[in-house]
Amino acid sequence: MRNKLQKAGLVMTGVVAGVLISLNFSASADKATQAPLPVEELRAFADVFNAIKQGYVEPVEDKKLINHAISGMLSGLDPHSAYLDAEAYKELQVGTHGEFGGLGIEVGMEDGFVKVISPIEDTPAYRAGVKAGDLIVKLDDTPVKGMNLNDAVKRMRGKPKTDITLTIARKGEQKPVVLKITREVIKVQSVKSKVVEPGYGYLRVAQFQENTAQAVVEHLGKLAKGNELKGLVLDLRNDPGGLLHGAVGVAAAFLPSNTLVVSTDGRTEDAKREYRASPEDYLRGTREDFLKTLPQGARTLPMVVLVNAGSASASEIVAGALQDHKRAVVMGTQTFGKGSVQTILPLNASTAIKLTTARYYTPSGRSIQAKGIEPDIVVEESANGSSRRLREADLDGHLGNDKDPDAERKAKAASQQPAGEGSKAPAGDDEAASPHRFEFAGKDDYQLGQAVNLLKGLQIVQNKKQ
């Protein structure tokens, strides 16, 4: 039996090596550092493959084994690389346009469990009380331990009006939290706005989708219509990110034309580039430039950007660009710290891989990977302080910060910072502390109140200068 396996393994090694060569396996790597194929490792892979095929208790399809191998290869790299099977790839494509089915949670994996990065605003998960940092340990009666992320997400997806029960391990809770949630078609309204006080506008970006930048311009037009705006609050709290060109477009609405917004750097040449406030970097295709309808004064209006530990990726790009160019005051708490770029690489018409291909940097060259954006003015979530929040530095296998070796320690210290001494956790982070769900721009929004107060102070200074 052992000899048969060894012989079959040698044959399989040759097959795998041949396939990799035919696919130009090493063509995408830096040509200066090309290495020969790892024959010993490929032989080990082939041995395991054949051992499963011949000796596993039940027959297993080749396709299933290969898919699992690809999935494990990617998920072992970092928390954001993944294999997208036909269903996951389709959901990704639909989700970037703002509509998909399910619960409304941004998730990752940690210690074999699904970890909630952030519930998306106005979704079933958000209304049910799912919180950033929750560990989902069971889906209905099925333990999550041992599932890969795609399988767990598939179970959470489903037809609208069907129920799923999440069993959650939550810091500070002695017993598991059990939540029964009804699935919905998730339609994320990525941009909202309102006049919070006469002369002061509020603009919230909940997620960066295909048309988010255009929606920002439209909402700015509505805010400016009939109002003499003296200041604007751009709210990026709990914004988990999204499309890169969407972030560039939003930043471009507030920065001078052709201003550097973000740069990326990776091993391949196409990963090394700059993104500027110019149509070729924020438009896709040949659409009309929506910034032509930008209200007068939008690029000079005094601004405060609100961020917190739920602000990640694309929202950190916007906050970092406006901060570096001194276009806005960044206020709130330290952001999540996801400073990496994921590229979707289709394998065929129905499947793809999501691969981390670069780190991104703010205009001044800062990397926020495993660090986050540090606010110009720290304002906690309530007058009593902030609750503990999950950040990139807390995720297993995260990339390090290549610019600041001490970034990870600082970020972990920030995520473990307790709420104000002797205080309860702020509204919105502890259901026991508040009988109602926290509402952004609601009457209990302490950070927004402080942002408006700052804008009023900036207006007074500006008037004195004039």
From TrEMBL:
Annotated GO biological process: proteolysis; signal transduction
GO terms, molecular function: endopeptidase activity; serine-type peptidase activity
UniProt signal peptide: 1-27
Record GO cellular component, one term: outer membrane-bounded periplasmic space
Keywords for the protein's UniProt record, in alphabetical order: Hydrolase, Protease, Serine protease, Signal
Cited NCBIfam families: prc
Protein name: Carboxyl-terminal processing protease
Species of the source: Aromatoleum tolulyticum
